[in-house]
């Protein structure tokens, strides 16, 4: 088999066979196919797309290129959630204990932050003592014992994806739907869960800017999952403004704790309830989505979801007293208040700009080697559609950086948060596909 023949085949809009795709991925992962040939293949896929079954075979090959987690020793149906990334997206902290508290098994592996999107693992490390690394045996044992575990990605999951993604980034093929879908789903398949709920973000703070694009990506990932026997649901949710009010590691953990206590932000609470209901339903809990949601809501009202979170934190070595007393968390040395410059309504809070501002404050990183400030970030006091008065505080910046390091930051924030007389908030949930 020769790579040049496969490139030509895809250039002619022909479908690559399963054995050809497995050979290509395997040989490229081993270093036997040069980058320039794989770049040519990626460009051919970018322009000509892939058939559904062809894309499924590519994704399977990528998933099988490294370690695969085996959950066959877990005592029940396993369910996972994947978000395509956003700003202030703390749903993982809420969903894992919430869904586990109704009896589902939730083995969750997450990553670190890069760029403006926050990383779940960085946020978890805000809790003193919390161990984000467990052996596979310990991970599975904990899920059997308490129905959930939340750890960093272990082993070498989908190494082919890492190599291919690096090429996509420098060959302008990042935006190809088949390549996005195979990248996400290869890691999900390697992670082992039987049911997957996808939270596909759309808006300024998301990778997909239109509902049409987000729907196409969701449908593509759904088809891959179903073709390999996974139960799938996708929710298309808005990311034109940050989710909740807090952006930054410790700040978001505290907001997630508030939500588990039943008094979190309206949008974060609602999205968490929607996603948790679908996760529970995939796991066979509840006779309908409505029934699942009722069970989920009750776990917040009776405090059992919060207790499950504390149990998980303690089980993984964390100090669970921080959950009962969030005031124990470290705070940044400086709080800078942003005031409204005029009366009106909040007409826009640009999620992407807010994410970049949080990164400047110290809450994000440019490369995985960069240190982040767990106390840094910002807390919004308003959402799109809210009324404001001139001089009213609309956001508070949390940072340890000097004025020189933050020169122009307030101007950036004023540009990100627009005030007009007319404001129309976007729908939080655009569509559900199940």
From TrEMBL:
Q: SMART domains given for it?
A: PYNP_C (SM00941)
Q: Give the InterPro entries listed for this entry.
A: Glycosyl_Trfase_fam3 (IPR000312), Glycosyl_Trfase_fam3_N_dom (IPR017459), Glycosyl_Trfase_fam3_N_dom_sf (IPR036320), Nuc_phospho_transferase (IPR035902), PYNP-like_C_sf (IPR036566), PYNP_C (IPR013102), Pyrmidine_PPas_bac/euk (IPR018090), Thymidine/pyrmidine_PPase (IPR000053)
Cite the entry's keywords alphabetically.
Glycosyltransferase, Transferase
Q: What is this protein called?
A: Pyrimidine-nucleoside phosphorylase
The reaction(s) annotated as catalysed by this protein in its Swiss-Prot or TrEMBL entry are: uridine + phosphate = alpha-D-ribose 1-phosphate + uracil; 2'-deoxyuridine + phosphate = 2-deoxy-alpha-D-ribose 1-phosphate + uracil; thymidine + phosphate = 2-deoxy-alpha-D-ribose 1-phosphate + thymine
UniProt function note: Catalyzes phosphorolysis of the pyrimidine nucleosides uridine, thymidine and 2'-deoxyuridine with the formation of the corresponding pyrimidine base and ribose-1-phosphate.
Against Pfam families, the record matches this protein to: Glycos_trans_3N (PF02885), Glycos_transf_3 (PF00591), PYNP_C (PF07831)
How is the quaternary structure described? Homodimer.
**Highest taxon listed in the record's lineage:** Bacteria
Which cofactor is essential here? Answer: K(+)
According to the UniProt entry, its GO molecular function terms are:
1,4-alpha-oligoglucan phosphorylase activity; thymidine phosphorylase activity
Domain Pyrimidine nucleoside phosphorylase C-terminal, first and last residues per copy: 345-420
In its UniProt entry, the species of origin is given as: Atopococcus tabaci
Q: What is its EC number?
A: 2.4.2.2
Q: Which family does it belong to?
A: Belongs to the thymidine/pyrimidine-nucleoside phosphorylase family.
Any single biological process term in GO: pyrimidine nucleoside metabolic process
Name the enzyme group at the top EC level. Answer: transferase
Gene Ontology cellular component? cytosol
